[in-house]
Amino acid sequence: MQLSTIPTFQNEALLVKALTHRSALNENTSSAEESNERLEFLGDAVLELITTKFLFEKFTTKPEGILTAYRSALVKTTTLAHTATKLGLGQALFMSKGEEATGGRTNEGLLADTMEAVIGALFLDQGIEVVTEFLMKELFTEIDDILENKLYKDPKSHLQEVVQALGFETPDYQVTTEKGPDHDKEFTVQVFVNGKSVAIGTGSSKQRAQQDAAQKALKKYPGAV
Predict the structure, then answer these.
(1) Do residues 30 and 119 share a domain?
(2) Residue 130 and residue 159 in one domain
(3) Catalytically annotated residue among 40, 116, 186, 212
(4) Which of 27, 56, 77, 141 has its CA 20 to 30 A from that of 194?
(5) CA distances from 221 to 4, 24, 152, 154, 159 (A)
(6) Are 135 and 157 in contact (CB under 8 A)?
(7) Does residue 44 carry a catalytic annotation?
């Protein structure tokens, strides 16, 4: 198997493993003997290194704090999930029928994890230079949009600045649902501004769900982004 937008793998089994969600092992829907979690672990580290080098070389006068914010925006769940969707990884994933039925192919956290696993697999298969070329083409092009829309700002801090400038109190975040087993939780959070619910966010942790809610809430305030 091969995805047209991803470099051709010399060892195709690595790509299959990168696209194997742990739920697939229960139903033998993948030829891989293990899930993509170890590749995800490796890919996360490789991604951080290459992204750091890219930003260090591109923004030669920016201080450490700004570069860290840029990096966080490039490798955060929503950015990686967007790239994974663009690459068609969601549809290529091996997963159980149950996982698919609950929206697994469009789940942002799952897509971001898969993106990292593919990066880890490509690193093992062809090395850091090929991974760098891949990321330059498919992920790092997002930096212009990140800068233009100030997506490098921490959404919660940014939202707090915006609403306080309007004379409102600090936003209030409330967990509305929590589902899934301990190793695969999904949280839903509502953010309230001035006593009114303005957005709902989801994530694999309360913090991620809060950040997602804050990012969505910012779109409700003209000039905030």
Answers:
(1) yes
(2) no
(3) 116
(4) 77
(5) 39, 42, 17, 16, 9
(6) no
(7) yes
Q: For the chain, what is the domain count?
A: 2
Amino acid 100 reads E
Q: Of these residues, 40, 44, 186, 212, which one is catalytic?
A: 44
For residues 108 and 179, membership in a common domain is answered with: no
Is 116 annotated in the active site?
yes
Tokens 């030669």, residue located: 60
pLDDT tens string, the chain, 225 residues long: the values are: 557 689 999 999 999 999 999 999 988 778 888 999 999 999 999 999 999 999 999 999 999 999 999 999 999 888 999 999 999 999 999 999 988 898 989 998 899 999 999 999 999 999 999 999 999 999 999 999 999 878 888 889 889 989 999 999 999 999 999 988 877 788 999 999 999 999 999 988 898 899 899 989 998 887 655
Return the structure tokens found at 199.
Answer: 């957005």
